[in-house]
Known about the structure:
By secondary structure, this protein is α+β, with helices and mostly antiparallel strands. It has two domains: 7-263, 4-Layer Sandwich (L-amino peptidase D-ALA esterase/amidase), CATH 3.60.70; 271-389, ArgJ beta chain, C-terminal domain (Ubiquitin-like (UB roll)). The protein has helices spanning 46-57, 77-95, 116-128, 135-141, 194-206, 244-263, 282-294, 296-303, 309-317, 348-355, 382-389, and strands at residues 7-12, 23-38, 61-71, 102-109, 150-158, 161-170, 183-188, 212-213, 223-228, 271-279, 329-332, 335-339, 342-343, 359-365, 371-378. Strands 1, 2, 3, 4, 5, 6, 7 and 9 form an eight-stranded mixed β-sheet that branches. The chain has a seven-stranded mixed β-sheet with strand order 8-15-10-14-11-12-13. Helix 2 runs parallel beside helix 3.
Amino acid sequence: MRLPRGFLASGVRSGIRRKGPDLALLVAANGANAAALFTKNRFLAAPVVLASADLKRSGGRVRAVVVNAGCANAITGRPGMEAARRVRDRAAALLGFPKDEVLVSSTGVIGVVLPDAKIRAALPDAKNGLSASGLEAASHAILTTDASPKVAEASFTLAGRRGRVVGVAKGAGMIHPDMATMLAFVMTDAAASPAYLKAALREAAVASFNAISVDGDTSTNDTLLVMASGEMGGRELQKPSEGAAFRAALTKVCRALAWMMVRDGEGATRVLEISIVGARTGIEARAAAHAVATSPLVKTALHGGDPNWGRILAAVGRSGARFSEKRVSLELGPLTLVKYGLPVPYRESQAVRIFSRERVPIVVDLGVGRAKAWKLSCDLGHGYVSINADYRS
């Protein structure tokens, strides 16, 4: 997949991981306006602290992003911060960019100081490998426990000009709002101000990365960055009322990447698509969806392909959302399981077939309002335990 106009990428091996590529470089040669959302975990990794500060200092301008896998460089104190700065400074000098327009990002094991000498030694190879078709290499270089790379694209038209949005991400475990254990980098050739991008990114995140859960944990390194090169031409987007087609494309890419993360959840075999409707407020709708998405009983039933709908309603019942027991309904795909608070006749074999698919859609109607919420979760099985029991081995 080719990158939008104005962007180059590469992926190389630096030796942080035992095998495979582990260093990605994303470059906007002529610069890009940018905006980012970071983890809300109080243990902020050194690259998150540094990138956030640099993005503010540059006024939302980015020329390059250096991403490593294999070491999160989180909870590492001053040595970790100094290592992150050395990587940034070396990349800036090599590329000829201002330091505060080069962002660093890391993923991997927490509590280990980044072996920055390995990255600095590999940066010339990363620079030499830059190309408009380098996203595939970069997508492999940022993975940790992911089973496969995650890349998505969408196109849009503004004032007769056609533009593209392309995103690359990693994430399979420690996935939960806000945001998830994820790194996601989205690039577009649209022209947009940093403030506009920040508002559009928040809107997209609500409908994607902040609506997924694998295991209820969030990380120290979560980063969602959008960069706009402006090379499609046209007037710069500045007002929230502008560029509906661009915002739709941005959300589409973010939702596609978020779905890939949940489907690639550590040990996961299927995705639960939860829709809560008929709630009194959006907060209560999200609370109900959250309770279902994070219930170990629901997630293990999903792993076994067991349509045990009692677990779903029990989770809703403890969520704190208000509802009428006599008006609640539950649908599993085209199949109605509960109506007006009571079970209705259905074929168990049909429910099992639906609950055993890769995508399992459920709709819970609380029957007391018009608010709704949507969330993605996945099953929880033996694979998750095996992966995380051996993560550092």
